[in-house]
Automatic annotation (TrEMBL):
This is Major facilitator transporter. It comes from the Bacteria. The chain crosses the membrane at residues 40-59, 71-90, 96-121, 133-152, 158-181, 193-212, 224-241, 262-285, 297-315, 322-343, 355-374, 436-456. It is a multi-pass membrane protein. Keywords: Cell membrane, Membrane, Transmembrane, Transmembrane helix, Transport. It is found in: Cell membrane. InterPro entries: EmrB-like, MFS, MFS_dom, MFS_trans_sf. Residues 5-460 form the Major facilitator superfamily (MFS) profile domain.
Length: 467
C-alpha cells in the first residue's frame, strides 16, 4: 500500500516541478495572445516563483503542526484549482494573479513530501530507494516539462500547459485522501509563531523578487541594493526571533546537524548552476542552433533518461556500497565536467557532438548526486522536525534556482553585448555569452563539490543509506 502512497507523492511532486518549465516553453505564445511586453511577461514565471519559494518553509512547519496529509491535500487542491483558473485567464492581471495562487498551492504540497516519505519508509534501504524515486521527479521534472511544453504548445495551444494539470491533480487528490495515512501534529497552539512566519515569508518573497528583478535593474542599481538590504534585514530578524521564541517556526537546532546545514549549502550551489544551465541551453539550441520549440524540448530528453536510469536503478546500490557523501561528490564532479564541456560550445556547433554528450554525462552525475543530497538533508532529523527540514531543503532549492537564472542570464547578456560591440556576428556573440554562462555554472558546481567535501562528514556506507 505504501508503494501506491509513494507514487501519489512523487506524481504530485513531478507535476509541480513540471509546471515551471512547461510554462516557460509556452511564454512566446502567451505573450502573443495576451499582449504581454517582454518585461511584464517575466511575471508569468516570477509570480509563481515568488509565492512558491516564499511559502515553502512556512508550509513545512505547518505540516509538522497540523498534519502533513492535511497540508498536502490543501496544497494539491489549491494548485489544481489555480491551474484551471490560469488556463481560462483572459488578461495579464488574471494570469499573473492565478500563477501566484498556483505557486502557493505548489509550496503547500511540495514542502511536506520529503518529510512524508521519510516517515513512510523508516527502514534504511527502503528509504534510500524511495528517496531515489522522489529525487528523479525533482531532477528530471524540468527537462520533461520542456518536452511536454513544446508538444502541447505546438500541437494545441498554451492553455493546455495549465489544463494538463487538471486530470492529474484530480486523480492524485482522490488517491491521496484514500492512501495517505492521517497524521496529527500538536496543533497551531503548540507552535504558532505569527511574527516569525511574517518575517520569513516576507523576507524570502522579497529576496526572490530582488533576484529576479536584478536582471532588469542590474545588481549595482540602488533599487536592487535597497531591496536586497530590506530582505536580508527581514531574514535576520527572523533568525533573531527564532533564537528567542518559545516555540520557533524554524528550530535553529536543526542547523547544528552537520548533514542538514551542509546539504542545504550544497543544494543552493548545485541548483544555481543547473537551473541556469537549462535556461541557457534552451536559448543556445533555439537561437544559435536554430531548433524550434518542440525540437528543443526533445533535445533535452537524454538528460531525464540518464537521470532515470541512475537515480532509479543504481543510486541506492551506490549509496549502500560507497556512502552518500562519496556518491554525492562523484556525481557533482561529473556535472561540473559536463558544464565545462559545454563551455566550449561554438556558433557553428552541432547538437550530436557539442550538446548530447554533456547532457548524458550530466544526467548520470545528477541522477547519482540528487538522491544522496536529499538523503543527507533529512538525515538525523527528528520526526517532529521532518516537515520543516523538508520545507527548508526545498526553499534552498528555489533560492538557488532564482539566483542561478538571474546571474547566468546577466552574465550571458553582458558577454554577448561586449562581443557584439567588437564587431562579431549575432550567432558568434550569443555563443560567446552562453560559453561564459556555462563556465560560471561549472564554477558553481566546483564550489558545490568543495562544500560537500568540507561540510559533510564521511560515514560508513551502511549508515549513509539512512540519509
Amino acid at each position: 500500500m505504501r508503494a501506491f502512497a509513494l507514487a501519489v507523492l512523487c506524481a504530485v511532486s513531478l507535476m509541480v516541478v513540471l509546471d515551471g518549465s512547461i510554462v516557460a516553453v509556452a511564454l512566446p505564445a502567451i505573450q502573443n495572445d495576451l499582449g504581454f511586453t517582454p518585461s511584464t511577461l517575466a511575471w508569468v514565471v516570477n509570480a509563481y516563483l515568488i509565492a512558491f519559494a516564499g511559502l515553502l518553509l512556512l508550509s513545512g512547519r505547518l505540516g509538522d503542526l497540523i498534519g502533513r496529509k492535511r497540508v498536502f491535500v490543501t496544497g494539491l487542491s489549491l494548485f489544481t484549482l489555480a491551474s484551471l483558473l490560469c488556463g481560462i485567464a483572459q488578461d495579464q492581471a488574471q494570469l499573473i494573479g492565478f500563477r501566484f495562487l498556483q505557486g502557493a498551492g505548489g509550496a503547500l504540497a511540495s514542502a511536506v513530501v520529503l518529510g512524508m516519505i521519510t516517515t513512510l519508509y523508516p527502514e534504511p534501504r527502503a528509504r534510500a530507494k524511495a528517496i531515489g524515486v522522489y529525487s528523479f521527479t525533482q531532477a528530471a521534472g524540468s527537462s520533461i516539462g520542456l518536452i511536454a511544453g513544446g508538444t502541447l504548445t505546438q500541437l494545441l495551444d498554451w492553455h493546455w500547459t495549465f489544463f494538463v494539470n487538471l486530470p492529474i491533480g484530480a486523480i492524485a487528490l482522490a488517491l491521496a485522501v484514500r492512501l495517505l495515512a492521517d497524521d496529527r501534529g500538536p496543533g497551531l497552539r503548540d507552535g504558532t509563531d505569527v511574527t516569525g512566519a511574517g518575517l520569513v515569508t516576507g523576507g524570502l518573497m522579497l529576496l526572490v523578487y530582488t533576484i529576479v528583478k536584478a536582471e532588469e535593474y542590474t545588481w549595482a542599481d540602488a533599487r536592487t541594493l535597497g531591496l536586497l538590504a530590506v530582505s536580508l534585514l527581514l531574514l535576520a530578524g527572523f533568525v533573531l526571533r527564532q533564537a528567542k521564541a518559545r516555540r520557533p517556526l524554524l528550530p535553529l537546532r536543526i542547523f547544528r546537524l552537520r548533514a542538514v546545514s551542509g546539504a542545504n549549502t550544497v543544494m543552493v550551489l548545485m541548483v544555481a548552476g543547473l537551473f541556469g544551465f537549462q535556461f541557457i541551453t534552451a536559448l543556445y539550441l533555439q537561437r544559435v542552433l536554430q531548433l524550434d520549440a518542440l525540437s528543443t524540448g526533445f533535445a533535452f530528453l537524454p538528460a531525464p533518461l540518464s537521470i532515470a536510469v541512475m537515480s532509479l536503478v543504481f543510486a541506492e546500490r551506490l549509496n549502500h556500497r560507497f556512502g552518500a557523501r562519496t556518491v554525492l561528490i562523484g556525481g557533482l564532479s561529473l556535472v561540473a565536467l559536463a558544464l565545462g564541456f559545454l563551455a566550449t560550445a561554438q556558433a557553428d556547433g552541432d547538437y550530436a557532438t557539442d550538446v548530447l554528450p554533456a547532457l548524458v554525462l550530466m544526467g548520470v552525475g545528477f541522477g547519482a548526486a540528487m538522491p544522496a543530497l536529499m538523503g543527507q538533508a533529512m538525515s538525523d532529523v527528528a520526526p517532529a522536525d521532518a516537515g520543516v527540514a523538508s520545507g527548508l531543503i526545498n526553499t534552498t532549492q528555489q533560492i538557488g534556482a532564482a539566483i542561478g537564472t538571474a546571474v547566468l542570464a546577466t552574465t550571458a547578456a553582458s558577454r554577448t553585448g561586449s562581443v557584439l560591440a567588437e564587431g562579431a556576428t549575432m550567432p558568434e556573440a550569443l555563443a560567446s555569452g552562453y560559453r561564459a554562462a556555462y563556465a560560471l555554472s561549472a564554477g558553481l558546481l566546483a564550489l558545490a563539490v568543495f562544500a560537500a567535501t568540507v561540510l559533510l562528514r564521511a560515514r560508513k556506507a551502511q549508515e549513509a543509506i539512512v540519509a
